[in-house]
Amino acid sequence: MLKLASINIEHNLHYDRVIPFLNAFRPDVVCLQELFECDIVMFERELGMKCVFAPMAKTPIVREDISSSQINFGLGILTALPVSDCRVHYYVGSEDTIPSFYKNPLTGGITANKALLAATVSFESSLYTFATTHFTWSQGGAATDEQRATIKKLFDALETMPEFVLSGDFNAPRGLEIFSSISARYKDNIPPYYKTSVDKNLHRAGDLQLMVDGLFSTPEYHISDVKLSDGVSDHMAVTALVVKN
């Protein structure tokens, strides 16, 4: 069975945890959120994989230091398997304009593109499509009109793809409106006994008890042995075994 790992790595803050974790798990496909473009070569070298990348925004390389150099961060899919197709759908913003990341201190609104990155890989004579995204943030995980509009655009992008496995940071807690709208369309593979995907010891906000990271699939795929692992990043690492039905 194909081994998948998905992690919001929080920029470059946890490499001493992320890299050893991935080398120990030895995944066939890795989906990363909040990946610095300048660190792709390092990940490729350390994991022995190649990366496809979708930039979402520019941010200071030193967190919250606006005087430091601005670099792209976004989504990455890494694999050593043959890649037959790769696509990027910007459902907010455009690949032609990568904005500077900005969070409005009054409204909490965030300026950043939103993308769906997908790669189709060949594994044991079958084609597997994996997609990842980092969805629109909201205060406390409550659904907003912005999220309601954005989820429709994400669904439109997903409708253009073949069957797939979708992972990422959805910024929308399981059990509430936005997450429920996703799980109504696609199978939610995170076991129900997991109540949070936020690492209370590494996340700046502490113990949030919010299941905001997802692993969804269409009927062609069977996903098993799904685990959430803490001590890796501010979000827990999601790992699973994947096979086609």
What topology does this entry show?
Elements: E1 2-8, H1 15-25, E2 29-36, H2 40-47, E3 50-60, E4 70-79, E5 83-92, E6 102-103, E7 110-111, E8 114-123, E9 126-134, H3 145-159, E10 165-169, H4 177-183, E11 187-188, E12 213-217, E13 221-229, E14 237-244
Parallel strand pairs: 1-2, 9-10
Antiparallel strand pairs: 1-14, 2-4, 3-4, 5-8, 6-7, 8-9, 10-12, 11-12, 13-14
Characterise the protein shown here.
This protein has 245 residues and is of the alpha+beta class. It has one domain (2-244): Endonuclease/exonuclease/phosphatase (Deoxyribonuclease I, Chain A, 4-Layer Sandwich). The chain contains 4 helices and 14 strands. The strands form 3 sheets. A 6-stranded mixed β-sheet has the order 3-4-2-1-14-13. The protein starts with a strand and ends with a strand.
Q: What is the share of helical residues?
A: 10-25%
Structural class: alpha+beta
Number of domains: 1
By CATH's scheme, which homologous superfamily applies?
Endonuclease/exonuclease/phosphatase
Instruction: Give the count of helical stretches.
Output: 4
Q: How are strands sequenced across the largest beta sheet? A: 3-4-2-1-14-13
Compute the number of strand runs.
Answer: 14
CATH fold description: Deoxyribonuclease I, Chain A
Span between termini: 11 Å
Question: Main beta sheet, described?
Answer: 6 strands, mixed
Label the CATH architecture: 4-Layer Sandwich
Spatial shape: globular
The helix/strand order is: EHEHEEEEEEEHEHEEEE
Task: Round the Cα radius of gyration to an integer and report it.
Answer: 17 Å
Strand content: 35-45%
CATH class, anyone? Alpha Beta
| Average pLDDT number | 95
